[in-house]
Structures are given as structure tokens and as C-alpha cells.
Amino acid sequence: MSELQLSFLETAPAEFDVNAVDDGVVAAGKATQGSAALSLSQRSVDDWVFGLGFTNWKNVIDHAIQTGHYELFSAEDGVSGLKKHGYRYAPIPRLPAGGATYVQQRLLVIAAQRGAAFGRNERMVQAGPEFLHKCVVENGLCDLMIKLGGEVFRGSVMVDQLNFPDQAKSDPGHIAIQLCRVLESAGAPADTRLEKGCTSLAAHFMRVVHGLR
């Protein structure tokens, strides 16, 4: 980073972040309402890596994903960054609040578009003696179908509302709880079979998202 850039960082107003190869400046996240995509689109950043200049974090992350940066990683201080698989260099060394969640939501959509998972022609997956599940991702919607104890239940949730963890760690816990609530609202019995089945489905989400290359 040049002396001019360092001087700019010292005097820059706090209203925007800076994305730079040597960490840059990312202010602490504030509590927001709405989706991660909406929050990121409203958060200003000066991008010095991709040459986007003054923009918002959603544009920066979208550009990174479009150029093949799919791998989330954890920095020493616990903040997540984004890079290409197998590379040490990270064009986004520090993601803002909601960034890791948004990346995983986008990768889920990309996996479906590639036919890697979540297509209409996929068969239902067995997850326990009485639980089968299938998920179709199309047009921003995650369409869920399960077979539990011989009965079929369907529910749906928007992809940009999926509770992916805001970290690089592959933890299906929050999504599993969310899927249980969606399917309970569709009439599925709230029991341990549903809980275990939704944990299996959420783990499948995480495997696909974190395995995308």
C-alpha cells in the first residue's frame, strides 16, 4: 500500500469501508433488517483490488464470485475472507457483516444453475428410515419436498432468506432450524424425525456450497 493510500486511510471518513489486498478497513457491522444482499447493497466501499472504485459491497462480492472466487476462509481474528480455491492471495481479505452469508446464498444458486445439485430431475434422498428429502432451487426460490412417515409435505423459502452462517465454517445448524420451521408450517409433524431429516438436508446444502469450484 502506498504512502498516499495510507494517508487516505488515516483521514478517510468512517461512512465507507476500503477493500485492499492488505486487509483494508472494514467497520464493525451494525444490526440491519432485510436480506444480506440488501444490507450489502446499502454499505459503501472503496474497492482498490478489482478497480471498481466507490461502490457497494454487493457489487464487489458479485464481481469476485463472477471471476471464480468461491472459497471462504477465516482470518486469525475470525473475520471471513473470499478467494479462489487453492490460492493464498485473497482479493477480499475481510468481508463485512453479512458477506459470508451472501456468498453462500449465491453459491447455492450457482450450483443449481450448473446442474451440480437441486435440479427438478434429482431423486429424493433418504435421510433416515422414514425421511426422504428433495430441494429444487429456481428463480431465487428454494422449493422443499419431504416424505415423512409416508406423507409428503412441501414448503419453500427464498434463497436470500436462507440462514447460512456469517462465517467460513460449514455449520448447518441455523439452516436446519429454519427448514424445520418452514416444513412445520406446511403441516409436517414437529418431532425428532423432522429435526434429523432437516439437519441432513442442511448439511447437504453446506457440502454443495463449500464444495463448489
Structure description:
The protein has helices at 3-11, 36-41, 57-66, 99-114, 173-185, 192-211, and strands spanning 17-19, 44-47, 53-56, 71-74, 80-83, 125-126, 131-138, 141-148, 151-158. Helix 3 (57-66) runs parallel beside helix 4 (99-114), helix 4 (99-114) packs across helix 6 and helix 5 (173-185) packs across helix 6. Strand 6 (125-126) and strand 7 form a beta hairpin. It has two domains: 36-113, no CATH class; 116-211, no CATH class. Strands 6-7-8-9 form a four-stranded antiparallel beta sheet. A three-stranded mixed beta sheet has the order 1-2-3. Strands 4-5 form a two-stranded antiparallel ribbon. The protein has six helices and nine strands, in the order H-E-H-E-E-H-E-E-H-E-E-E-E-H-H. Helix content is 35%, strand content 21%. The radius of gyration is 19 Å and the shape is elongated. It has 213 residues and is α+β, with helices and mostly antiparallel strands. Keywords: Plasmid.
